[in-house]
Write a structure and sequence with these properties.
Elements: E1 2-6, E2 14-17, E3 37-40, E4 53-57, H1 74-77, E5 81-86, E6 101-111, E7 119-123, E8 129-136, E9 140-148, H2 158-163, E10 172-174, E11 184-198, E12 200-208, E13 211-212, E14 217-222, E15 225-228, E16 234-237, E17 241-252, H3 256-265, E18 271-274, E19 286-297, E20 303-312
Antiparallel strand pairs: 1-12, 1-18, 2-6, 3-4, 4-5, 6-11, 7-10, 7-12, 8-9, 8-11, 13-17, 14-17, 15-16, 17-20, 18-19, 19-20
Length: 314
C-alpha cells in the first residue's frame, strides 16, 4: 500500500494552463442583479483579495443599487454574495473532486511543483487519453507516456468486446515517473470532438505504508435526498457521494513507530491512498481523501496489524 503526499499548487507552480473561465470579472463600478455571477481573480478592480472564485449575487449591488459589495469579503458580505466554486482554471487544484474543469477537446496544464515529485493522480476525469511529459532544464525530456482511458476490465468475451458500450476509466494513477525536483510536468487530457472534464489533479512523492490485505472494505456515503410522501412514493434528488475505504494493512513491527508518526503528521491533510503498490485500481482501493481514524495492533514481533478508515473527498 502506498500514499501520495500532494504538493500544494499555487500560482507560483503553474507554468501554463489553457483553461479559462467565462464569468465576467467583478468591478466595483458595475451593477449586479440578483442571480448574476462574477469572478474575483484580481484586486485591481476594488476587491480585497484575489480569491480565484466564482460568486452569485443574493442581492442587487453596485453604484445603481445602493453601492458596491465586495464578493471576496465573505466576512461581511456572505449574505450578499454566495460562493459558487473556484474559477474553471483552478478547479483541478481545489480539493473538490466532483467539481470538474471543462474545455473542448483538450486541457493542457504545465506545472513545476518545485518539490521532488514521482507520482501523479488524476480523479473524476472524462477523456480519451492522457499524456504526461516531464522536462528538466538540464536533462531535457525525461518522461513521456500516453495513457488510454478505455476500461476493458469488465469485458469477458468477444460478444461483450464488440457490443457492450465503451466504458472509460475515471481516474489515473502514475507511479513510474522519475524522481526530480524543479521539473516541468505537462498534463495533456484529450478527447477529439468532445468536451474534456477533470475533477482533481494531485502530484507529489509516493511513500510506502505496508501491505493492504484481504479484509479491506469499500463503500460509499451518498448525499442524495430520498423523500417518501404519504402514499409511499419516493422523490429523489441526486447529489454527490464520497468513497469510504476501510484498509486492513500488514506492517513490519519494526516500522510501527515510523508509520504511526507519519499518519499523525498527515491527520488533517488530503492524501492519495493506493491499495496496491503498483497503483492498479482493479479492486477500487484508490481514493483521494483523509483518514478519519487508524488503529495499530502489535500482533507479534515480526508483523503488526493496522486499520485505517479513509473518507474520500467529494
Amino acid at each position: 500500500m502506498k500514499m501520495i503526499i500532494p504538493v500544494a499548487i499555487t500560482e507560483s507552480e503553474i507554468v501554463s494552463n489553457n483553461l479559462t473561465d467565462s464569468n465576467s470579472e467583478w468591478l466595483n463600478s458595475t451593477d449586479f442583479a440578483i442571480g448574476a455571477r462574477c469572478k474575483v481573480t484580481t484586486t485591481a478592480n476594488g476587491a480585497s483579495a484575489a480569491t480565484n472564485k466564482v460568486y452569485q449575487a443574493a442581492v442587487a449591488s453596485g453604484p445603481g443599487n445602493g453601492g458596491a459589495l465586495d464578493p471576496s469579503d465573505q466576512v461581511n458580505n456572505s449574505d450578499q454574495w454566495v460562493e459558487v466554486s473556484m474559477v474553471n482554471n483552478w478547479k483541478p487544484f481545489d480539493r473538490i473532486v466532483s467539481d470538474q474543469a471543462t474545455r473542448s477537446e483538450n486541457i493542457t496544464i504545465v506545472v513545476n511543483p518545485g518539490n521532488s515529485t514521482n507520482a501523479l493522480f488524476i480523479a473524476n476525469v472524462s477523456a480519451e487519453t492522457i499524456t504526461v511529459t516531464m522536462t528538466h532544464s538540464t536533462d531535457g525530456e525525461v518522461y513521456n507516456e500516453t495513457f488510454n482511458l478505455i476500461d476493458n476490465s469488465g469485458i469477458y468475451d468477444y460478444f461483450e468486446y464488440f457490443f457492450d458500450p465503451i466504458i472509460r476509466k475515471t481516474q489515473l494513477t502514475i507511479l513510474d515517473m522519475p524522481l526530480y525536483s524543479n521539473i516541468d510536468i505537462s498534463i495533456s487530457i484529450d478527447d477529439a470532438g468532445d468536451t474534456v472534464e477533470v475533477g482533481e489533479i494531485a502530484m507529489g512523492q509516493q511513500k510506502s505504508l505496508g501491505s493492504a490485505v484481504f479484509g479491506t472494505g469499500l463503500s460509499i456515503f451518498d448525499f442524495s435526498i430520498k423523500q417518501q410522501d404519504q402514499f409511499g412514493q419516493y422523490s429523489i434528488t441526486e447529489r454527490g457521494f464520497s468513497n469510504r475505504l476501510d484498509y486492513a494493512i500488514a506492517l513490519d513491527t519494526d516500522l510501527v513507530g515510523a508509520v504511526y508518526s507519519q499518519l499523525s503528521r498527515y491527520r488533517a491533510t488530503p492524501i492519495v491512498w493506493l491499495g496496491r503498490d503498483d497503483g492498479d485500481d482493479k479492486y477500487g482501493t484508490n481514493v483521494y481523501g483523509f483518514f478519519r481514524d487508524f488503529r495499530i495492533v502489535l500482533s507479534n514481533p515480526a508483523t503488526s496489524d493496522c486499520n485505517i478508515k479513509v473518507e474520500g473527498l467529494t
